[in-house]
Amino acid sequence: MRIFSFLVMISLLFPSCSKDKEKLNQNPYLTNPIVNLNLNLNLPEYNSLKFPGNYVIAPQGIKGIIVYAVSESQYWAFDLTDPNHVPNDCSRMEIDGIIARCSCTTDTNEYNIVNFGQHLTNPDTHYPMQQYRAMRNGDYVRVTN
User: What 3-state class would DSSP assign to 5?
Assistant: First the structure.
């Protein structure tokens, strides 16, 4: 009987967690553009990605993509459009260190790049930055979705 009770409790717990996660994954403001970048780290414009803490901005995605070097083998890539409103003329975010800020004067949205693109002040109610896969293979960093 205890096993049955435990299984019932677990089955009730999992759907409630996944609904919150689904909400954050289904951002109604953003599209999912096709992204396929190969950044050659031997080229001067991408060479800084060989060193942790550096980033480059590539002209793909919705408003551009920031590729951030977490370590020599780990990279994160996010779209530069503010995920908490419809893309418009001012929704391209600007980078200040590890913080991405929306340039629209109507909001004060800020996101932490090294914390998975989470909203700084309201991570539970605001969408995180749209993330892409970024993997290093030899002298290339490949960014895809």
Answer: helix
Residues 66, 9: Cα–Cα separation, whole Å: 42
Residues 81 and 62: beta-carbon distance below 8 Å? yes
* Nearest residue to 132 via CA among 91, 93, 75: 75
Strand order in the sheet with 99-102: 93-96, 99-102, 110-112, 118-119
Two tokens, residue 5: 């009770």
- Could you report the per-residue pLDDT of 34-69, keeping only the tens digit for each? 999 999 999 999 999 999 999 999 999 999 999 999
- 99 vs 6, 37, 117, CA distance in Å? 43, 23, 9
DSSP per position, 41-110: TTSTTTGGGGSTT-EEEES-TTT-EEEEESSSSBEEEEESB-TTS---TT-BEEEETTEEEE--TT---E
pTM of the model: 0.81
The answer to whether 102 and 2 have CB atoms below 8 angstroms apart is no
pLDDT, mean of residues 4-33: 57
Domains and CATH numbers, the chain: 2-144 (2.102.10.10)
Query: Which three-class secondary structure state does DSSP give residue 127?
Result: coil
